[in-house]
Design brief:
about 375 residues; alpha/beta; Metallo-beta-lactamase, Chain A; 3 domains; eight-stranded mixed sheet; seven-stranded mixed sheet; 15 strands; about 20% strand
Amino acid sequence: MPAAVLALALGYVSLWLAKLPVLVATVALNGITGTIQGLGGLHLADLRVGMPSAVMITFAVASLILAMWTARRRIVLTSLGLFVILLVALALAFVAPRPDKHSGVMEVTVIDVGEGDSILVITPSGKTLLVDAGGPIGPGGSQLDFGEDVVSPYLWERGFTHLDAVAITHGHSDHIGGMISVLRSFRPRELWVGLLPPSHALENVILAAQESGVNVVRHWEGDEFDFGGTNLRVLFPPRDWPVGDKPQNSDSMVLSLTYGQSSLLLEGDAEKRAERRISAVEHPRANLLKAGHHGSANATTQELIESARPEFAIISVGSGNSFGLPRAETLLRLAVAGTRVYRTDLDGAVTFYLDGHSVKATLAGLQ
């Protein structure tokens, strides 16, 4: 700063005299910005932590008060206060908080990402699966990073710093737009994908997963395995399903998770063609249904409702959306079936607890 001021002053006298302080100011400025860029490239500032526990927060406040009290006292007390502050900082950075989980139940939280999907499933044994991560609608993009600004804050607030698996139902932007940020922040073990039509967005997500050391797993109709104490079945797509020249709703991977006598059906944006195949081939049952395609009229068909007989349905949809979703005919079909419907545009994020016998619904803000 003194060199810059001197250069400015000498510039009124002689440009030649001003060159030396300009050189000094330039070297200093480049050194400062270069240091920042270098440290940023090392990602030293990218350490992300979950919400600390109440005990840790109390301890941090107490340590700050201790450091303030010992300041300008004896050197031993001052050193002690600074040392305690250092210990607390290290603990906050490297001691992972205990995630907010409910053992012995399958928890399903539909995160409010507006006109998109993002669903967190926590199994009875505590394994975590995030299905989709929200995103902007259409190719125009958005200044909001749904993964960084919506999904990740919810996970951090719950104390999560890691996910066991993430899944992409299909390649539309309102489902995968936030996934790259989630992959980089939570480093899941696996990324589950189904159909992969040509798509730069899908390719970028898979590349980000590979760069983060995430194992990319293709899943197809008929896959079945244990996932954290639940029986997980892939109901769609079949291996021979035609792949279009761009992502479509009909690409959606459909998952069924069962715990005891309670079950969950996640549809992504599956529409009637896929639903009718699922109903005829798989005959799914579901206490809880994540309605297909945000409550569109061409999804949540009568065939699927009659097969699944859901007690609850959740529709992930944006408030005041321009598509007129959810459609009245879809809501009517669910109402006639006696299904209780929750909607993120009206209820915000909604959490369901499946205990193996029944389902309990709670608005996420009231947990």
